[in-house]
Amino acid sequence: MAIERDAQIRFHPEGTLNAVTRWISGHHEGVAEWFKNARRAYQADRANVDEKHRAALLLLRDIYDGEPGRIGLLDVGGATLEDVTEWSTWQDARASRRSMEVEEEETQGNGGKAYMYRLFEGPARILGVRDGKKNCKGFEGAPGSSERGTPGFMPTGASGREAPVDSLNAELNGALAPYGIVSGDLPAEVLDAISERKAFTLVEGVGPAQAERGIDAEDLIERTLRDEQATLAVEQMRVYAVHNGRLLAGGNPLQLAPIEPYPGLEGPFIEEIPEDLPLDEGESVSTTEGGKRPEGRVVLHTSRENMVTAWKKLKPRWKVSYRTQHQMIGAKPVAELVPATPGAQFVYATIELPALEPGYVEHGRRRPKDGPLTEAVDLFVAEKIRELAKQISYHRRRELDDKALDEVQQENQRLDRFKNRFLPGNGSGEGGIGEDGLGPGGDGSRRPPILWGTVAEAIEFATPVDRLRVGRGVVLHLGHVLAPRILDALGRPVRGIVEWHSSNRSVAKFDERDVLQACDKGEADVWATLNVGHGRRLESSRVVVEVWAVDHVLLTPRALEIRLGEREKIDAEVTDEDGSRSTGVYLEWRHDADDQLIVRIGPTGTVTGNRVGRTSVRAGAGDPLGGGVWARIPVDITVLPNPQQPERGGGYPRLLLTERDLDPATGQIKEGDPEEPALWQEPSDFVHNIWWLNLQSPDAAFAFTHREVDPVVWRQFHAGVLMDMVVQVHMQAEYTRKENETEDLWANHRTALDVFQAVVVQQMWEGLEPWVRDGGGLV
What is the arithmetic mean of pLDDT over 32-41? Predict the structure, then answer.
């Protein structure tokens, strides 16, 4: 269609100004924007300020002797005519750039101007002195008006545009006078930088809103430092502050508040970066440029608080910072290196590596440049963070108290059996399956309840083997592998916990319960026992554990595609130091995806697709970073979306306990995760028909900590999670059992949910109430 357009696009001035500035609601947000802009102005494509001169001064002045209050920031960049001209354009995301050939961060589109326009009653300006010339532009006018939002030279074009400067010191003192100080009062490094560079910039606003009774300097600074825009700035330049003529912080640069370390793991933990680090492709990269540069290190710190949930104070600092010998070159969030890693929420780190400079330094210094060195260093650091995170997770489990966890595990087993009364069939409408894990009756009907024995007479292994081969350095939950069962004289199961033993602890030993550690090459007998009282002790048959000194590991196939919720097998052919070969050796398995929950890997190489993504899987024995032997060529895994609903595991769905129960997908104790809900199920859990009571979730952790003082608080929470699980199992069965089911309105689903809750949940509560009240019931 033809069109005769207007001469130019039109916007309502005041409406537009309000739209682009209303996100600034407090002075801390505006000052943080100023910090960010000063840091950006110091970069190579702008003022190119030397590292030793990167300092600034926050100026605060209350109403005094009839003069209005002021807030300003003095830096050493020296804004030029080009700078103030680019600053004058609203909504220009490229205002901070001076070269289109340099890929840089984009700032100063609106932030600093929005603050100056919105939160000051009087004039606001940017004043720059550099190369013997002065430039000054700013705002003046009624708050919220289009007149105020139209910038101009101050006080006139003649005196505010490339005006000659006779005396730098006189200009500086004139700018500082309203704040009650002179140049001699400045911090030494700020004054020295201005004197050597013969330049300074002052951005300021007169009559700050919301400060009629004075500026609360401490609160303003604290809130500014917590702002994500300011975090990087105060790490890359020294920012001082002065309030009513008095230097704050004892005349020292402003610093982020100290982070209280995790008790028992105070650190810092220093890890020397090896001279050569491996890459994914099996190659390696030098971290010292072949010995030309000093070696680097990683400094790991811990936090008493969960840094993710402490979003105001700690989340902006939950990162890995990269420093060279002379400068900080950026940061990456910890979650980018080790996402979905329990315990990592309490870890942050600094990498100090001279070889990153200059090749890996971006002009913006927001994050290091990508490349082989950063890739290799990131893999190294991620592994160290995971190791420390694992220790924290272990400490958190210990903090929950082993005895209390055992009691809660027993309670959870009682509740898990109780909930089966309220599930359809085996929980999916397909006929019941008992706790022994056996299949349904031949007619698909519900199996009768398990008849439990009381007097133990034997210990049998559900997985009968005479010999196990384990790589040296491998840790294995033997209970998951052999599945011991305690039986009475009639073959009925008896509840109990067995103890494990080894005939040669120098070859294989048990550290805790069923956790076997393969220590050295050789053989050892292992067996399980149970103390049944009256001087009687049952003993299982013995299994030979043969520890292999692994020399080589070959994985097949080279690549696998796994649909979400499905499982595939990787074969690992192991060659030992004597040349013997076997595909039946238990190894450690790991993968290199940032998100460690993309796949779940069992001790025999069974891989379950858990989240859509790509990763590379390796297997081996011992420390992969030193002394261990791992497969040189990984298996590339691609987890694809699954167009069909994965098949859910048989039997009643089970509610298991993190920090105590084994994950059937990995053969390891499931660690809780503070970022996941209390009732937690991943796709790999779905195919095993299990749910987790996540003790690391904030609400579960809170209830657990009150268990000893007020056990009703915990039992009520535990019962609520159980009922929530039953509701979700019912709703899944209700809306997935029909073929070719058409979409329905949420209101209809909600109605069905309400009806179900009104009937079944009330029935469950009748059985749960005595247990919640005093721990009784649940027969």
Answer: 90
Distance CA 86, CA 93 (A): 10
Q: What pLDDT shows up at residue 105?
A: 43
Q: How far apart are CA 273 and CA 288, in angstroms?
A: 10
Name the 3-class secondary structure at 676. coil
Query: Does the pLDDT of residue 107 top 70, yes or no?
Result: no
**CA proximity to 378, closest of 302, 319, 308, 307:** 319
DSSP character at residue 454: S
- Burial group, residue 167, by CB count within 10 angstroms (0-12, 13-18, 19+): exposed
Report yes or no: 565 and 648 within 8 Å, Cβ to Cβ: no
Q: Cβ neighbours of residue 504 under 8 Å, at least 6 residues apart?
A: 522, 523, 524, 525
Closest residue by Cα to residue 293 from 330, 326, 328, 325: 325
Residue type, 434: G
CA 283 to each of CA 280, 335, 590: distance values in angstroms, whole numbers, following the listed order = 7, 26, 19
| pLDDT higher than 90, residue 111 | no
| pLDDT tens for each residue of 537-584 | 899 999 999 999 999 999 999 999 999 999 999 999 999 999 999 999
Coil, helix or strand for 722?
Answer: helix
The closest of 119, 118, 117, 108 to 38, measured between CA atoms, is 108
For Cα atoms 231, 236, 237, give the angle at the middle one, nearest 5 degrees. Answer: 105
Pairing state between β 163-164 and 690-693: unpaired
For residues 613 and 599, what is the distance between their CA atoms, to the nearest angstrom? 9
Cα 232–236–241 angle (5° rounding)? Answer: 90
Domain boundaries along the sequence of the chain: 14-251, 269-398, 402-428+649-774, 458-548, 550-640
SS3 category, 728:
helix
- Is the model's pLDDT at 675 over the cut of 90? no
**CB atoms inside a 10 Å sphere around CB 369:** 17
Which 3 state secondary structure label does DSSP give 535?
Answer: coil
Q: What is the token pair recorded at 123?
A: 């004039």
The answer to whether residues 335 and 319 touch, using CB atoms and an 8 Å cutoff, is no
pLDDT at 328 over 80: no
Q: Which CATH superfamily is domain 550-640 in?
A: Immunoglobulins (2.60.40.10)
Domain 14-251 has CATH 3.30.565: yes
Q: Is 142 helix (H, G, I), strand (E, B) or coil?
A: coil
Return the pLDDT at 576.
94
Which fold, 458-548?
Immunoglobulin-like (2.60.40)
Domains 14-251 and 458-548 equal at CATH topology level: no
